[in-house]
Design a protein that fits this description.
This protein has helices at 7-10, 15-30, 50-63, 79-90, 108-114, 133-141, 196-209, 248-252, 280-291, 297-305, 309-335, 359-370, 396-407; strands at 37-38, 102-105, 125-129, 148-149, 154-155, 158-162, 180-184, 212-216, 242-247, 260-263, 269-271, 277-279, 340-342, 348-352, 372-373, 375-376, 387-391. Strand 13 and strand 14 form a beta hairpin. It is built from 13 helices and 17 strands. The chain has 411 residues and is α/β, with parallel strands linked by helices. Bound molecules: pyridoxal-5'-phosphate. Pyridoxal-5'-phosphate binds at residues 42, 107-109, 112, 132, 184, 188, 216, 218, 247, 249, 255, 260.
């Protein structure tokens, strides 16, 4: 008889995006004349950069020749890609990360979800609240949490670290020491960031308490301020306590193209049951070579092209385009009397719902009155109640129109 992993029964259904999609669908069906502006899902909308397309075509042509054909690639990615990443994303920022500490993968969602396999199920995890749901759900699946607590609206056995306007979206260090701390900066969903000195307090905490930080930097390319770290390894001592995740999804519009990477310093360790230090680089390598067969050669060449001089300029133009949308949203909504956070070093705008509106009420109200669809903040965690997320991943025309529609409302 086959049996399921009971931990899957603890999961809450994909309530958030399923419910918003259902509501948007019902609204569109009832109002066929109204154009819905979807600012809910964080997906790239602008075309791939010409340098990336050229690299894809060139690599495809190579694959069509006897000499250029490639089969299975190296387990952890081609050296040509690992080297340009080490050079441009780390060494150029004064960070000592070498190519062999970089593992090329197809997804930061997969990597942030799979990394927990390296760790004991006895460990307690700490997450920001609101949070990117993958971190929580993958730990639930692994049995590292208790049950869902309906009264509290989250899982037993997880340390939730609330981030709201009251604490400036800067959660306090946990009192109960977690084994693993998930941090995401620039943050999805709040669009807020930590300065170098603020991130240092987390690194110091992890060092002092023996915790490990899982740092998701999927949105680092959106940082515009000099004092905001792009990598946790810009912080002294972080190589001893942190793993970092990056993705080409939002940096280069690779959401449908698929390439990402994870950085695990060679000296980073965790304890085994006998108290010995075990290399996490070694464990992740073992896992990768067992469960993953690499990103296509053509796509790794496409990712490499992001670091060419033309590629860099073209990527920056697209990021500037999205960040101009973010500015339009922030300024337009602020002028309409709505408090907004984020949207300066991240492509997300975190709106404080006006008056007594709860997250879902405001979502419904906006949809009904402006045909603009956001994402209710409470869907990302309890501390997201009273907030709504809008994304800058849209056209400027739609962004301007959404702002104009919202500005006509009275709160
Ligand atoms: N990490 C965060 C915080 C994200 O918001 C996302 C995508 O929305 C990802 C990771 C996923 O990245 P990828 O497309 O590489 O799986």
């Amino acid at each position: 008889m086959s049996k399921i992993n009971e931990n899957f029964n603890k999961l809450q259904s994909g309530y958030l995006f399923a419910t918003t999609a259902k509501k948007v669908g019902a609204f569109s069906a009832a109002n066929p004349d109204k154009k819905v502006i979807k600012m809910s899902i964080g997906d790239a909308t602008q075309p791939l950069a010409p340098a990336v397309i050229a690299a894809i075509k060139k690599a495809a042509d190579e694959m069509g020749t006897l000499e250029g054909f490639r089969g299975y690639g190296p387990d952890f990615g081609y050296d040509f890609l690992r080297e340009v990443i080490a050079e441009n994303d780390f060494k150029a920022r004064g960070v000592d990360i070498s190519a062999d500490e970089i593992f090329i993968s197809d997804s930061a969602k997969c990597d942030t979800g799979n990394i927990q396999e390296l760790f004991s199920t006895d460990l307690t995890i700490a997450v920001l609240d609101p949070v990117y749901p993958t971190y929580v759900d993958t730990n639930v699946m692994a049995g590292r949490t208790g049950d869902y607590n309906p009264a509290r609206g989250n899982f037993d056995g997880i340390i939730y670290m609330p981030a709201s306007a009251e604490n400036g979206f800067k959660p306090a260090l946990p009192k109960e020491v977690p084994g693993l701390i998930y941090l995401c900066y620039p943050n999805n969903p709040t669009g807020t960031t930590l300065s170098k000195s603020e991130l240092s307090t987390w690194v110091d905490y992890a060092k002092k308490n023996g915790s490990l930080i899982l740092f998701d930097a999927a949105y680092e390319a959106y940082i515009s301020h000099a004092d905001i770290p792009h990598s946790i390894y810009e912080i002294e001592g972080a190589k001893d306590v942190a793993i970092e995740f990056r993705s080409f999804s939002k940096t280069a519009g690779f959401t449908g193209t698929r390439c990402a990477f994870t950085v695990i310093p060679k000296g980073l360790t965790a304890k085994d049951a006998s108290g010995n230090d075990v290399s996490l680089h070694g464990l992740w390598g073992r896992r990768m070579s067992t469960k993953f067969n690499g990103v296509p050669y053509i796509i790794q060449r496409a990712a490499e092209a992001c670091y060419s001089p033309e590629g860099k300029v073209q990527l920056k133009q697209t990021i500037d385009y999205y960040m101009n949308n973010a500015k339009i949203l922030r300024e337009g909504l602020t002028a309409a009397g709505i408090s907004c956070y984020g949207g300066v070093d991240a492509p997300y705008i975190w709106i404080k719902t006006p008056g007594d509106f709860g997250s879902w009420d405001f979502f419904d109200y906006l949809l009904a009155n402006t045909a603009v669809a956001g994402t209710p903040g409470v869907g990302f965690g309890n501390a997201g109640e009273g907030y709504l997320r809008l994304t800058a991943f849209n056209t400027t025309e739609n962004t301007l129109e959404a702002v104009a529609r919202i500005q006509k409302l009275k709160f």
